[in-house]
C-alpha cells in the first residue's frame, strides 16, 4: 500500500480492513464442499469445463484457509461459474524474489497482486509478464465496471490495452486531509474554526500554552519531504509530488520540488511549528513505535490523515470522549477533490495463464453483490467476523496469532462500495470510505514511475533527501541557512537525470492514455 503523509491508518483500523474469506452460510464446511482441485473435473450447467484460478498473494496462509476457500468454491458453483479459486501465499520477506522467479520461469499460476508503490505495474508490463484483459473485461466484466470509476482504469492501461483490475478499496479523493482533536480545543475554549495553516498553528500554540504537561504536540515524524495537506493552500493547486523530488503540474510538466516556492513555504510552516515547540524535539530520530504511540495517545492538536486507532483507544486517553471528538478536515475545500493516485493496488493476469477470463469472471462475481463480497473478504458470520448493523464489522481474532481469522484484505482486492467498516472506529476515520461522485482524477493519477533506468541516481537522491532535505522540511533547521548545501548535494546525486527520466516516462504515459 502506498503510504502518503495524508493517509495514516494505524493498526486498529487496519485490523478492520484485514478481513477473511468464507461463506456467510454457517453450515460446517467440513462436509462435502469441493475444493478447487476436487472440483477441477466437473462442469457447470452450461457444460463449460471447470477451471482453477490460481491466485498468488503476499502474506501467510491463515489456518482458516481450507475451510473458507471450500465455502467460496461451493458458492461459485452454485452461482453457475466454471471457476474455482486456489490461493497461494508467499511470505512478505520473500515476495519480490519469489514472484519474479515464478514469472520468469513461467510457473503455472493465473493472477497476482501488484503493489504500485513496491514494484510498479509498468515494470511488469515492460517485462511482458502480464496479459491484456480488454476482451475478457468487455465480455465478463459488467459488474466490475459498475463499481470502479472509468477514469480509475486509466491507471492500468497502456497503449489502449487493459492490464489489470484496480482494488478501489477507499476514496483517494479523500486524501489531502488532517485530523484535529476537537475535544482538546473545546476543553480549553479555543476556537477550532481555522481556515488557514497559520490559524491552525496559532490555535495549536494557544492549546500548548493552556494544557498541562505532557503538552499536546504534533505526533509524527516525516519519511518524505512533501505534505499534500498543505498543497491545497497554494494558488498552483492541484499539483502532485512524487518521491519528494518530482513536482507534476496539471499539464503533466515535471519540475524540481525542492527548488519550488511551495516547498519553501511548507518547510517554513513546519519550522515555525518546531520553534514554537509543537513538534517532538527528537523528530529526526523518532522511531516508528514512538510515532504510533503518540498518535494513539491522542494528545495532539492535529495529526496527518486519519486517527485509525479506534474509539476505545482514544477513550482510554480521554474518558469523556465520544466517537465525534475528532474531525477530519481539508484546507480550501472549495478547490475541489482530486484523486492523485489511482490503482495503488491491482490484480493482474500472468502472461502464462491459460484462461485469463477466469480472473475477470471471479472478480466480477466478487463485485456483484454484498453477499459475495462478504464471503470472500470477511468469512462466516459468527466464525471469522460479526456483522454490526448494515455495514459495520467486528473482527474475530485468532488467539494464537493475534490476527483476524481471514484469508484476504480489503486493500488488496476490496471495493469501497462493499467494504464493511469497523464498528469501533472514530467517525472521522470513516470519511476515507465516502465516495465523492464529482472527484476528478489528476493528470498523473494513473502514472507510476519506474526508477530502473536511473536506479543509481535515484538511490543517491534518496540518500540526500534523508540526510539533508528531511531536516529542512521537518522544521528542525531553517530553509534559508541550509537549502543551498542540500540542493547542491541533490545536483551531485543526479537529481536532474532523475527528473528528466520522470518527464520522459510522464510524457509516454500521457501519450498512451489518449
Automatic annotation (TrEMBL):
Transmembrane segment boundaries: none
State the source organism's domain of life: Bacteria
- In the record, which residues are listed under signal peptide? 1-19
Q: Which organism is it from?
A: Paenibacillus psychroresistens
Q: Does the keyword Signal apply?
A: yes
The protein in question is named: Extracellular solute-binding protein
Q: Map out region (Disordered) in residue numbers.
A: 25-45
What Pfam families has UniProt attached to this entry? DUF3502, SBP_bac_8
For this UniProt record, give its keywords in alphabetical order, as a comma-separated list. Signal
Amino acid at each position: 500500500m502506498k503510504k502518503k503523509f495524508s493517509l495514516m491508518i494505524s493498526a486498529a483500523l487496519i485490523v478492520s480492513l484485514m478481513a477473511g474469506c468464507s461463506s456467510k452460510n454457517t453450515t460446517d464446511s467440513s462436509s462435502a464442499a469441493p475444493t478447487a482441485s476436487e472440483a477441477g473435473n466437473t462442469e457447470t450447467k452450461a457444460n463449460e469445463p471447470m477451471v482453477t484460478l490460481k491466485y498468488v498473494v503476499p502474506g501467510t496462509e491463515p489456518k482458516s484457509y481450507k475451510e473458507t476457500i471450500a465455502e467460496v468454491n461451493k458458492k461459485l458453483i452454485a452461482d453457475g461459474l466454471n471457476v474455482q479459486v486456489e490461493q497461494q501465499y508467499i511470505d512478505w520477506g520473500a515476495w519480490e524474489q519469489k514472484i519474479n522467479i515464478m514469472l520468469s520461469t513461467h510457473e503455472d499460476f493465473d493472477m497476482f497482486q501488484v503493489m504500485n508503490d513496491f514494484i510498479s505495474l509498468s515494470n511488469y508490463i515492460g517485462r511482458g509478464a502480464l496479459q491484456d484483459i480488454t476482451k475478457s473485461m468487455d465480455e465478463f466484466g459488467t459488474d466490475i465496471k459498475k463499481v470502479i470509476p472509468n477514469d480509475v482504469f486509466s491507471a492500468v492501461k497502456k497503449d489502449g490495452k487493459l492490464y489489470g483490475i484496480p482494488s478501489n478499496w477507499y476514496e483517494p479523493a479523500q486524501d489531502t486531509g488532517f485530523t484535529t482533536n476537537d475535544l482538546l480545543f473545546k476543553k480549553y475554549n479555543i476556537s477550532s474554526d481555522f481556515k488557514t495553516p497559520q490559524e491552525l498553528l496559532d490555535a495549536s500554540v494557544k492549546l500548548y500554552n493552556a494544557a498541562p504537561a505532557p503538552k499536546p504536540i504534533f505526533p509524527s515524524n516525516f519519511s518524505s519531504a512533501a505534505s499534500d495537506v498543505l498543497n491545497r493552500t497554494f494558488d498552483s493547486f492541484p499539483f502532485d509530488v512524487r518521491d519528494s523530488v518530482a513536482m507534476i503540474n496539471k499539464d503533466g510538466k515535471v519540475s524540481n520540488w525542492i527548488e519550488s516556492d511551495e516547498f519553501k513555504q511548507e518547510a517554513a510552516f513546519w519550522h515555525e511549528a518546531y520553534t514554537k515547540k509543537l513538534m517532538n524535539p527528537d523528530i529526526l530520530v523518532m522511531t516508528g513505535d514512538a510515532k504510533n504511540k503518540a498518535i494513539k495517545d491522542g494528545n495532539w492538536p492535529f495529526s496527518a490523515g486519519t486517527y485509525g486507532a479506534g474509539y476505545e483507544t482514544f477513550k482510554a486517553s480521554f474518558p469523556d470522549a465520544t466517537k465525534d471528538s475528532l474531525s477530519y478536515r481539508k484546507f480550501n475545500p472549495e478547490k475541489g477533490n482530486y484523486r492523485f493516485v489511482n490503482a495503488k493496488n491491482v490484480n493482474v493476469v500472468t502472461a502464462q495463464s491459460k484462461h485469463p477470463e477466469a480472473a475477470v469472471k471471479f472478480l466480477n462475481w466478487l463485485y456483484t453483490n454484498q453477499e459475495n463480497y462478504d464471503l470472500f473478504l470477511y468469512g462466516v458470520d459468527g466464525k471469522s467476523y460479526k456483522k454490526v448493523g448494515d455495514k459495520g464489522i467486528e473482527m474475530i481474532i485468532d488467539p494464537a496469532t493475534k490476527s483476524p481469522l481471514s484469508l484476504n484484505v480489503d486493500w488488496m482486492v476490496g471495493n469501497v462500495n462493499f467494504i464493511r467498516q469497523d464498528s469501533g472506529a472514530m467517525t472521522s476515520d470513516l470519511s476515507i470510505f465516502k465516495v465523492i461522485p464529482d472527484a476528478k482524477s489528476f493528470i498523473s493519477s494513473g502514472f507510476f514511475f519506474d526508477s530502473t533506468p536511473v536506479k543509481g541516481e535515484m538511490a543517491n537522491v534518496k540518500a540526500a533527501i534523508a540526510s539533508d532535505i528531511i531536516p529542512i522540511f521537518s522544521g528542525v533547521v531553517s530553509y534559508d541557512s541550509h537549502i543551498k548545501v542540500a540542493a547542491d548535494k541533490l545536483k551531485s546525486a543526479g537529481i536532474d537525470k532523475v527528473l528528466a527520466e520522470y518527464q520522459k516516462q510522464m510524457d509516454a504515459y500521457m501519450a498512451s492514455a489518449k
